[in-house]
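Handout, section B. The chain below has 377 residues.
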Amino acid sequence: MNIDTHVILISAQAVPNITPLLDEQFKPKNVIMLVSPDMRQRADWLDAVIKIKGIKSQRWDISNAWDIEHIRDNIIDLLNQHEGKPMALNATGGTKPMSIAAYDVFRAFELPIFYVHPDHDRVIWMHPPDRPSHDLADRIKLPEFFSAYGATLTETGDKLGVPAADRELTQTLISEVHRWAAPLSILNAYAAEAQKNLTATLRPKDKGYSELHHLIALFERNGLLALKGDTLQFANEDNRFYVNGGWLEQHVYGLCLNLKKAHGIQDIGRSLQVARNHRNPPVRNEMDVVFLKDNRLYIIECKTHSDKNQVGGKNADAIYKLDSLKDLLGGLQARAMLVSFNRPNQYDLQRANDLGIAVCAHQDLVQLPQKLAQWIV
């Protein structure tokens, strides 16, 4: 049966509504959105993506998303107005009363009903149940994905692979994490201090710290900084950013690139800036590494500083940030991971566990390729 029109129930979860519309084998010509008053803005966001794909859309207002009889009567009116048109219901979204009422009416009218499995990104037919399930194509890219959640991708870093010299430096740092963790935190502080004029002066207590000088020499050999007397000098902002933790972001991005083909990653980016259009002016957020797999959003935050036993440090900030962004920009199925060169304290590890955020830190970084592969399965 050719289905020209999908009827969808607008809710806070955009992905189950949009992915069937982007699959060329399943894509309809028209979409009718059932929209309650509190979902009008989300309908606007979804509508912008739908129109880009050349699909015509219209709205059908549901004034009370919790009154099942009201919803049922409205959907009957909708189907009577579109009598004879090949339509199907995507029953995944909406409130429970919206989903139940829509299912009942479509079943009574002997019209097809499907549900998008949240974990496996498959269309499952509820009526008639004998229709085969359908794996949805992973067509959506990061700009469209963010747009469906009311955000605009405003800036991205380069998408090049990791140069061999940088891989060698990164391997040295990670393979000897116990040696470099403490001096790297100090070097991070100097790199952060150099943000204004690309220079920083070593403090007296650090001038005799041999491991710090060995670490500076590693970065200096790669042309990333220079130590002139007691002054650290960075040739440009890119180098300063790299020394200030950008190297770990680049490393994680490179590992994800390596997984792209074998694991079906459909889009990937680094150093992303996103403007969330929830208020005026928009709220801006930065994300280190982000990718999509099976139309699910994955967010990775990279940290190279040390919080030691501090409660409420930068690792804690990163965990709260990840928890917030995965809900706001990816919905219920989004996943997040903190990658930290230093070991988070017990409070941060417990908080990450409570929030369902994966952590790969300190000595476990040597196993990061395997942990990423297991995480995205």
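Note. The mean pLDDT is 93. Compare this with the example in section A.
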